[in-house]
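Hi team,

As requested, here is the filled-out complex form for the guanosine-5'-triphosphate run. I kept the field names the same as last time so the parser does not choke. Let me know if anything looks off before we queue the next batch.

— J.
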Amino acid sequence: QERSYVMVKPDGVQRGHVGEIISRFERKGFQLIGLKLFKTPKELAEEHYGELKEKPFYGKLVDYIISGPVVCIALEGPGVVASARKLIGATNPLNAEPGTIRGDLGIEVGRNVVHGSDSPENGLRELGLWFDQDELIEWEQHMTPWLKE
Ligand code: GTP
Ligand code: MG
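And here is what came back:
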C-alpha cells in the first residue's frame, strides 16, 4: 500500500486549519495511519528539506517550518502521493486552483499551509523521518468495501 507524509505547516496550525485539512484527506477516502502535533527540531527540518539546501530561500524555509508546532499526518491508500499533491495544489498558493488546500487557504509561497510528499519513495523516507515505527498504526478500516471495488 502506498503511503504519503502530509504536514500542516505552522501557519496552518496557527490559523486554525488543522481540522479542515485533515478532513479533506479523510473525505477523499485515504486512511489515517499516523497523526500528531509536533514541535520540529531544526535538524529535522533541515534534513526534510535537504534537497533544497542550495536554494536562496532554504534558511527562511527552515525557520518557517520550526516557527511553531506542525501536525504530522501519515496517509495510506492507492495513489495517495499524487492524489494528496492534487488536493494540496501548486506550490505557490497564488497559482493553486480554487478547491485545493493552498488555492483556498493561502496567498504566499513562503506560507503555503501544508506539505505533501512528492514521490512514493520520498513518502516512505519522510514517514521514517517524522514518525517512530510504533506511531504508525495498521488498522482495518471498515468502510473499505464502500471505497474500493
Ligand atoms: P512541499 O510540499 O512543502 O515540499 O512543497 P512543494 O513540493 O510544493 O515545493 P518544493 O518541495 O519545491 O518546496 C518546498 C517548500 O519550499 C515549499 O512548499 C515552500 O514552502 C518553499 N518554497 C518553494 N519555493 C519557494 C520560493 O521561491 N520562495 C520561498 N520563500 N519559499 C519557497
Ligand atoms: Mg516538495
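Two things worth flagging: The domain at 3-147 is CATH 3.30.70.141 (Alpha-Beta Plaits). The chain has a mean pLDDT of 97.

Thanks,
J.
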